[in-house]
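Hey Z.,

So I finally got round to the magnesium ion thing we talked about over coffee. Here's the setup:
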Amino acid sequence: MKQSQLFTKTRSEAPKDEVSKNSELLIRAGFIHKEMAGVYVFLPLGLRVLENVKKIVRDEMNKIGGQEMMMTTLQPKEIWEKTNRWDDAVVDNWFKTKLKNGTELGVGLTHEEPFVDALGEYIQSYKDLPILAYQIQNKFRNELRAKSGLLRGREFVMKDMYSFARTEEEHNMLYEKVADAYYRVYDRLGVGQITRRTFADGGIFTKKFSDEFQTFSDIGEDTIYVNEEKKVAINKEIFTDETLEKLNIKKDDLVEKKGIEVGNIFPLETKYTEALGVRYKDEKGEMQPIIMGCYGIGISRLVGVLVEIFGTEKGIVWPESVSPFKVHLVELSQGDEVLKKKATDLYEELISKGIEVLFDDRDARAGEKFADADLIGIPHRIVISKKTEEKGVLEYSNRITTETTGKTKEEIIEILK
Ligand code: ATP
Ligand code: MG
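And the result:
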């Protein structure tokens, strides 16, 4: 893409009421637009990153047998009444609306009930199970505070998966498979090393824990206790003597840290399937309950997390796996038509090789172009200028390794491939 065609522009300051690093950098670099507190538009650059995160999540969910579908945002109140989750006194962050005839509707904030309701139609016998199904969709939650940019939206993008199993054993197998896939997602996003599976509250209807995936960060809202050696982490919310005893771990062996919850998986037992009357017929023809699990990943939150973790005072530094473009080609032709032509040819050659390029072909000062490239944060950069022409090379730099060297076109293509 030619940067001269990109309608978004960088800006030197974010709106005054933006206090988080992620939203400030993302707004200044033109990735997101603030609609209102906790509600953000994904602009062309931002959407490319969001879609890249989705692609990784999708890929890992498909690999373990997840089947993608898409639920509806508008929700009938009846199915939520069956599980006692409609009442505002029970679930306090619903957005609700009404049909013209007065019928109340919910605006989807999670999707256990509708998944059970929809899939229930296709679950009859033991042969129909197990099932892993998921969606990537906008969720709506009336969050009390929305001051941390993409980390806490009132409208945000989540991947939510649901498993349906015949036995506890089968459920546990699926549950661990998903947990492994989550680690692969965080690894591919470059935060695997600083993300820990963390024991957390399982909810009111199970004695089991849920498992959160917490990425270490000083700005995290969660307090967790971590033992690196034993690979154990516990959320403060369940940090009691009883929990420690259950997990056979001593207080002194744990270190307190802050974390951002980037995923959460729950054993739901038979709570939702039973409440909605979905069972299966076993080999003997007897009706049996279905054991369920649910698995969330904060897709848009992760975009914010990557900026919080890798961003510097100069700008964003995207991990290669989600960068909006593979390489930023910056030409400093400054009116030299021959040089401009050479840069344009290079741009077209890179594209023909399947390399995604953002080409800064704007007539702007070198300082402005570099500052913008720093802000936008594409990890590989090529500069073509009078200086590089004199030396007979291209200037290649890598924002992750911070290396800058003169290289030939062939050498750079080799790196990018
Ligand atoms: P939190 O404790 O942060 O409010 P939650 O436990 O209510 O989150 P879940 O229902 O477990 O969230 O949702 C699954 C995942 O979706 C979370 O692990 C998180 O990554 C993401 N998520 C939840 N709420 C938001 C939000 N308001 N904005 C962005 N992402 C969110
Ligand atoms: Mg959670």
